[in-house]
Design brief:
Radius of gyration: 25 Å
Number of strands: 21
Distance between the termini: 19 Å
Bound molecules: dihydroflavine-adenine dinucleotide
Helix content: 25-40%
Structural class: alpha+beta
Strand content: 15-25%
Largest sheet: 7 strands, mixed
Shape: elongated
Number of helices: 13
């Protein structure tokens, strides 16, 4: 409807009701919602292809929501902030949209819903929603700056792009986080927020592998590729999933989840045997009078390669289990249930799925995502200090926050 239509009102700049900065998941959802309310809406993105992050998500199948998504699945300085938007647009609502568009999906595990065929269908869903509602999307348009129009003119924003200047009553920052710069992530959203006087919390790469110190790598890099089911803990958060040994340190879903709550210098604790109590494992074999050596028991319990490494790591005597004192067995068992490690750093934005932190929640209305200090300026999606666990939670926040702002812009 609006495509190509020129809307000059007085000045030289194109005029819109709403300009959404960034046409990722949150931006497109917001644009479609706003346009359905009759707002003349334009979404801008510097990519030459729509939804690049959606396309690479979930291994190309996009884990587009989690049926259990609730505020407890998010990290934020204010754990209550996401409640309102998540309650008003739930995973069931998005699932309704997926079904309306006839997209086949399946639950992989733990409430995680994936496209059966390809993430492309989610991009097409969002494109269709924008088209149907009349929201225009312009690609290859780099947002360079946003200013409030000079005093005297009504409260409007000037959006400066490489393709010229535009004006709008409302501007939505939906430019995402810093992860994966090679597919278009930039810091523009945080820069603009700061420019308008909004605080931005500490930013870190999250949902990412953790690099381990050289001493650890000299012992464990050799078993890179080995994975094991663990209960992994950092601070007061515990996740039960696999960890993976890598050439740089540790990865796998449990580590990615931990990384959301890990800060430099924090220890992490790995329970390497969440189902089998190791004390009983050793003591029962000792009681049976087993002549098997401790090393054999380790490789039996943890596979050849990992068992051998753990055997060395925990300084276990290389003797039959029946010769080891109960107290020593108990100590070894306790160590295996609580292996304390000190990661060196996170794996960086080049690999991270998300950025932890963002525009401080105290600056925004939790209902509309509008900046309290700057009427007409909204922030949605990953640029906000609301970061979800691995498992479809980040997209659910993108949809829910996009709808919340789109209903109000
Ligand atoms: P998003 O980053 O999607 O969009 C921001 C847009 O702004 C981009 O299109 C960018 O091009 C544009 N932009 C930035 N700077 C600009 C500028 N200066 N000018 C113009 N445009 C600009 N989550 C999940 O729930 N399930 C999953 O399966 C996955 N999988 C996954 C895999 C990988 C590899 C990554 C990196 C991430 C995930 N995620 C995920 C996280 C999820 O992709 C992410 O949280 C959302 O895409 C965030 O949506 P936004 O719309 O906020 O930002």
């Amino acid at each position: 409807m609006l495509s190509g239509e020129k809307m000059y009102r007085g000045g030289m700049n194109e005029q819109w009701d709403v300009i959404v900065l960034g046409a990722g998941g949150a931006g497109m959802m917001c644009a479609a919602t706003a346009a359905r309310r009759g707002r003349r809406t334009l979404a801008l993105d510097h990519g030459d292809k729509l939804g690049r992050k959606i396309l690479i998500s979930g291994g190309g199948r996009c884990n587009f929501t989690n049926i259990g998504a609730g505020p407890a699945n998010y990290y934020s300085d204010n754990e209550h902030f996401a409640k309102s938007a998540l309650a008003r647009y739930t995973s069931r609502d998005f699932l309704g949209l997926v079904e309306k568009h006839g997209i086949p999906y399946y639950e992989k595990k733990l409430g995680q819903l994936f496209c059966r065929d390809s993430a492309q269908s989610i991009v097409e869903l969002l494109r269709a929603e924008c088209e149907e509602s009349g929201a225009e999307i312009r690609l290859q348009t780099k947002i360079e700056d946003v200013e409030l129009m000079p005093e005297g003119s009504s409260h409007r924003f000037l959006v400066k792009t490489n393709k010229g200047n535009l004006e709008a009553e409302s501007v939505v920052i939906a430019t995402g986080g810093l992860s994966i710069p090679k597919i278009g992530a930039t810091e523009i959203g945080y820069k603009l927020a700061r420019k308008f006087g909004l605080a931005v919390t500490r930013l870190d790469a999250a949902l990412v592998s953790l690099s381990m110190p050289p001493e650890f790598l000299s012992r464990f890099a050799e078993i890179s590729g080995v994975s094991i089911d663990t209960k992994a803990t950092v601070r007061d958060k515990t996740f039960r999933e696999n960890i993976l040994f890598t050439h740089q340190g540790l990865s796998g879903p449990a580590i990615l989840q931990l990384s959301l709550h890990w800060f430099p210098k924090d220890p992490i604790f790995l329970d390497l045997s969440p189902d089998v109590p190791m004390e009983e494992f050793f003591l029962s074999r000792k009681r049976e009078g087993s002549r098997r050596t401790m090393k054999t028991l380790f490789t039996e319990r943890f596979t050849e390669r990992l068992g051998e490494k753990l055997f060395q790591e925990f300084g276990v005597p290389e003797v039959p289990v029946m010769e080891v004192a109960d107290a020593t067995l108990k100590k070894i068992a306790a160590g295996l249930h609580r292996w304390e490690l000190y990661p060196l750093c996170d794996g960086g934005y080049g690999k991270a799925e998300v950025t932890r932190g963002g525009v401080a929640t105290g600056e925004l209305s939790s209902k509309t995502l509008e900046a309290k200090k700057v009427p007409g300026l909204f922030c949605v999606g990953e640029v906000v200090d609301v970061t979800g666990w691995l498992g479809g939670y980040n997209f659910q926040w993108a949809w829910a926050s996009g709808v919340a702002a789109g209903s109000s812009v």
